[in-house]
Amino acid sequence: MGRQPLWRRVGFIPRVTYFKPAGVRLDQSQEICLAVEEAEAIRLKDLEGLEQEECAQRMNVSRTTFARVLNSARQKMADALLNGKAIRIEGGNFEMAARRFMCVNGHEWDVPFEVMINTPPQFCPTCNTPGILPLQPPGLGWGRGGRRRRHRGGRNW
User: Fold this and answer.
1) Which domains occur in the chain, in start order?
2) Do 113 and 26 contact (CB within 8 A), yes or no?
């Protein structure tokens, strides 16, 4: 039995999560699913222009794992573009890089990924109240409100 895969760190969830070819009806188009961590790999490497080593560090994976995720994303996108398939961005195996919290008094703050792993916040850093709540990431696409930060496969946003 193989080991459990590590959660990939993601710093951005796209607001638009579905793309379809023009002139093709939705019920007639084939669709490919691009995982959120694959979209993040494309964003870091191709949009931000970072080197693979830095991309891998940002996603908290090895460079070879990053290369596999990036190649998978590029292959899926090429298939969709050249064969007229729709692209859905959803699911995957990821953790948000920073988590945003709000206290009952309305103060908001971000907690970095590394801190969340070791010591999740118990009190508001501004007013020291224990009544704090995690805020959901903006724009999880297609009207689905996020219910949790860690995601694995399917449509369990």
Assistant:
1) 8-94 (1.10.10), 97-138 (no CATH)
2) no
For the record, the structure tokens of 147 come out as 């219910």
Q: Give the span between the Cα atoms of 122 and 131, in whole angstroms.
A: 8
- DSSP-based three-state secondary structure for 111: strand
Strands 98-103 and 132-134: what pairing? Answer: antiparallel
Contact 146, 136 (CB under 8 A): yes
Please state, for a pLDDT cut of 90, what percent of the chain lies above it. 42
Kindly report the pTM of this predicted structure.
Answer: 0.66
One DSSP character per residue, 65-109 reads HHHHHHHHHHHHHHHHHHHT-EEEE---EEEESEEEEEETTS-EE
Query: Where does the pLDDT of residue 117 fall: very low under 50, low under 70, confident under 90, or very high at 90 and above?
Result: low
CA–CA gap between residue 138 and residue 99 (Å, rounded): 11
Q: Which helix (H) or strand (E) holds 117?
A: helix 113-118
